[in-house]
Amino acid sequence: MYKKISVLFIFGIIAVMLIGCGEEDSDNVVIGTAGSSGTYYAVGSGMSDIINKNSDINSVSQGTDGATENVRLVNSGEIDIGFGNWDALTFGYEGTEDFDEEQNIVELMSLYRSAGQMAVKEDSGIEDYEDLEGKKINLGPKGSTITNMSEIILEYHGIDIEDDIDAYYLAFDEGGTKLQDNDLDGTFYVAGVPTSGLIDLSTSSDIRLLTIEDEVIDEITDEYPYYEKVTIPADTYEGVDYDVDSLQLWTSLMVSPDMSDETAYEVVETLMDNVEEFQEVHSVGEDIKLENAAKSPIPLHPGAEKYYEEQDVLDED
């Protein structure tokens, strides 16, 4: 689990560097991402580099346990910016699901869409979600909302996670390794397409990705409007030579409303002024655009909102 002491250690290093460079007045910003094999981590690292090169803000990206944990870390002030999907932002802001009370978070900007992807071995005999009954399935890491999506998909296929499967809660890399070693029958990802964990898995093992039928997708998106349908094109991953229909949702950056308007504005402005470089960080970069940045299921930070108003990209309603 992410430890506050590690943040203090990072800040200590930054402080020494700043004193040596004569920049004691610069802002220090810690960005919470997720596990090292996921898209959050890759995009967060690139984002931190862009901010450091192009602004007066000093940022570091830090691996965490994922979106749900990031909500709590932003709420407690242990990180300044957190990656999270729209379901996590909604749950945290409203104080529902994994949160006993409303969390002190607002949105900074939306980035890209993350898709649910269930991988099984090609020779497993598992053809669809119903075939997962009685199997050992990784539902995603604790501290993330990956488990929410995986549990919902299974539920809508008639599978009870308590009674019908042997559920595991592992990070992407561990889930992929255990599937490869036949210690799991399936492992679930929610990440940008393609995600590095599945790229590695598909190049080292013959895998299949499970598809969701349209009628099930319609039922789920009617009940949970932060989800939408996505089609993962054939040949996105090695050996997966067919289209895969699944669910996706937006990934956003969240901050505390206590962040200064100036810092929030500068982060958004820096990323948008250097959006072409930001887009090159990862293949999900094609979603990172000004017209997408102001999308949000929760209120925007006033500093970010000011920037979007100046750029005339806020919805009029």
Number of helices: 12
What characteristic shape results from the CA principal axes?
globular
The major beta sheet can be summarized as: 10 strands, mixed
> How many strand elements?
10
Strand proportion: 15-25%
Q: Number of folding domains?
A: 2
Mean pLDDT: 90
Structural description of this entry:
- This protein is α/β, with parallel strands linked by helices and 317 residues long.
- It has 2 domains: 4-112 and 251-311, Periplasmic binding protein-like II (D-Maltodextrin-Binding Protein, domain 2); 114-249, Periplasmic binding protein-like II (D-Maltodextrin-Binding Protein, domain 2), CATH 3.40.190.
- It has helices at 4-21, 39-54, 67-76, 86-94, 146-155, 172-180, 196-204, 214-223, 261-273, 275-279, 290-293, 302-311, and strands at residues 27-32, 57-62, 81-85, 106-121, 136-138, 166-168, 186-191, 207-209, 228-232, 244-255.
- Strands 1, 2, 3, 4, 5, 6, 7, 8, 9 and 10 form a 10-stranded mixed beta sheet that branches.
- Helix 5 links the parallel strand 5 (136-138) and strand 6 (166-168).
- Helix 6 (172-180) packs parallel to helix 7 and helix 9 crosses helix 12 (302-311).
- The radius of gyration is 20 Å and the shape is globular.
- It starts with a helix and ends in a 6-residue tail after the last helix.
- Residues 1-5 and 13-25 have low confidence and may be disordered.
Give the topology:
Elements: H1 4-21, E1 27-32, H2 39-54, E2 57-62, H3 67-76, E3 81-85, H4 86-94, E4 106-121, E5 136-138, H5 146-155, E6 166-168, H6 172-180, E7 186-191, H7 196-204, E8 207-209, H8 214-223, E9 228-232, E10 244-255, H9 261-273, H10 275-279, H11 290-293, H12 302-311
Parallel strand pairs: 1-2, 1-3, 5-6, 5-7
Antiparallel strand pairs: 3-10, 4-7, 4-8, 4-10, 9-10
Helix pairs in contact: 6-7, 9-12
